[in-house]
Specification:
This protein is an alpha+beta fold. It is 35% helix and 23% strand. It is built from six helices and five strands, in the order ααβααααββββ. It has helices at residues 7-24, 31-44, 67-71, 75-79, 95-109, 114-118; strands at residues 48-52, 120-129, 135-146, 152-160, 171-176. The chain has a five-stranded antiparallel beta sheet with strand order 1-4-3-2-5, sandwiched between helices. A hairpin with a 5-residue loop joins β2 (120-129) and β3 (135-146). The longest helix is centred in the first third of the chain and has 18 residues, at 7-24. It is globular.
Length: 179
C-alpha cells in the first residue's frame, strides 16, 4: 500500500526488503543459521542493530555485535534485559506509551497467521537512554523471515535516528508489504 512514508521509514523498508531477498538466496534451515546470517547483515547495514524477537523466540537471545556502537550497550548487557527489561532504558515519559503500543501490537497480531505477519512491517519510535545517559530517538522495525522448512523467525532492526528526525511522541505504524 502507498502511504505517506517518511524517508526514515523508507530506509528501514529497504533494509528489510534486502534482508528478505538475501535470505531467500541462503540455505537458512534453522535458528542456528539465522545468527551468522544476521551477523553478515549488520556488516552490510552497520547503523542498524539486528535482534531476534525475545517474545517469539525466548530461547534465542541474539543481538548483533554493533549494538554497542549504535545503542551504547554491549550484546551481553542488552541480552540480559530480555524480554521486558529494555523498557527500563526507555525515557520515563515514554514508558507507558511504549507499553500501550506493545499491548496494541500483541492484540493486533494475536489473530494473524505467520504468513500474514510475513507481509507486515511494524515501525516503533521512542526515546532510549544510552549508556552515557543521553536519550536517542530509536526506530525499531519488526519483521519476519521464512526459513526453508517454512517456519518463521521474528526479528527487529533498530537504528538511532536522533539526527534524522524530530521526536513528536511514541508512535507505532504498521505497513503491509507484498510478500
Amino acid at each position: 500500500s502507498t502511504m505517506n512514508y517518511s524517508p526514515l521509514s523508507r530506509a528501514g523498508e529497504k533494509v528489510i526488503a534486502l534482508v528478505k531477498e538475501i535470505s531467500g538466496e541462503q540455505e537458512l534451515i534453522s535458528m542456528e543459521d539465522i545468527f551468522p546470517f544476521m551477523d553478515a547483515m549488520q556488516k552490510i547495514f552497520p547503523q542498524w542493530v539486528f535482534g531476534v524477537c525475545p517474545f517469539h523466540h525466548p530461547e534465542s537471545r541474539y543481538v548483533s555485535s554493533n549494538c554497542e556502537q549504535v545503542l551504547g550497550y554491549t550484546r551481553d548487557e542488552i541480552r540480559a534485559l530480555f524480554p521486558l527489561g529494555v523498557i527500563t532504558y526507555v525515557h520515563e515519559d515514554d514508558q507507558d506509551n511504549v507499553r500501550a503500543c506493545l499491548s496494541f501490537l500483541h492484540d493486533y497480531l494475536k489473530d494473524k497467521s505467520a504468513e500474514e505477519y510475513y507481509t507486515l512491517r511494524i515501525v516503533l519510535q521512542f526515546r532510549f537512554r544510552n549508556k552515557s545517559g543521553n536519550f536517542l530517538v530509536v526506530q525499531d522495525e519488526k519483521a519476519s523471515l521464512k526459513l526453508q522448512n517454512s517456519t518463521f523467525v521474528y526479528y527487529s532492526i533498530l537504528k538511532d535516528v536522533t539526527e534524522e528526525t524530530t521526536f513528536t511522541g511514541v508512535r507505532v505504524d504498521i505497513y503491509r508489504q507484498d510478500a
